Amino acid sequence: MNRILGIVAGVVIGILAFRAFQNAADGWGAGHSDIGLWYAIIAGFLMIAAVAAIVGTILHTRVPER
Fold this sequence. Notes:
Layout: H1 2-29, H2 33-60
Helix pairs in contact: 1-2
């Protein structure tokens, strides 16, 4: 159950990162480079968090081998 919750949390954070990347692209496209830049930075941090949540969940919920 913990593994499922951790992976779902990572996927949700990944969706937020994708939306932030979309906002960054919209900002760049509208000529607002400051909005595009900061949304891209936020999206990068969110993507790092999503990958860390998924990988960390997989590593820390493994059943030890006997």
